[in-house]
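Good day; I would like, with your permission, to put a structural problem before you. What I wish to show you is a protein chain and, alongside it, a tokenised description of its three-dimensional fold. I would ask you to consider whether the tokens describe a fold that such a sequence might reasonably adopt. You will find the record immediately after this paragraph:
***
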Amino acid sequence: MDEREKLLELLRTEGLRLGKITLSSGKVSDYYVDARKVVLHPEGAYLTGKLILEMIDPEAVAVAGMTLGADPIVAAVSVVGHLGGRDLSALIIRKEAKDHGTGKFVEGPTLPQGSKVAVVDDVVTTGSSLIKSIERLKGEGYDPIQTIAILDREEGGSERLSGAGYRLESIFTRSDLVPRDPSS
């Protein structure tokens, strides 16, 4: 079993839940993927970090994502990159600015203005989290150059990102994880 297949198996056994559930986007789905359970697993963190690292544009100097879903992904990619000789700074994007201190949306090392950043997320439905992450990074003077997810649910997020000038890359799509019901 190769690394991609191992990660898919972990997603199926540890993160997939079948049945009706309301997603953060407000949509109702027939399945839910809790990728945090996988990325917080030692093997899942390594596999996620390695596979996403392989997808990151060589010009990127940092990897960033919206808290909480992207936090373990950002950390895994940064650590696996360092171990393999590619240092990528880790940036965590807050949902809301702090009401004390600097009031920053983006936490992590201060990078030069215009630094190129890969933006990651765990599961993409509408793309809202990635769009908000891109806006926050631009607001801090960074240049988001790509978007990557563990799973594209194939429910419009890719198209929305495309409309904003970004191509969504993902390790997996819904069809890899959950076959569509032919009756729906």
About this structure: The first strand starts at residue 16 and ends at 22. The first helix runs from residue 3 to 15. The chain is about 35% helix and 25% strand. The beta strands are 16-22, 28-33, 62-66, 89-93, 106-107, 116-124, 143-152, 168-173.
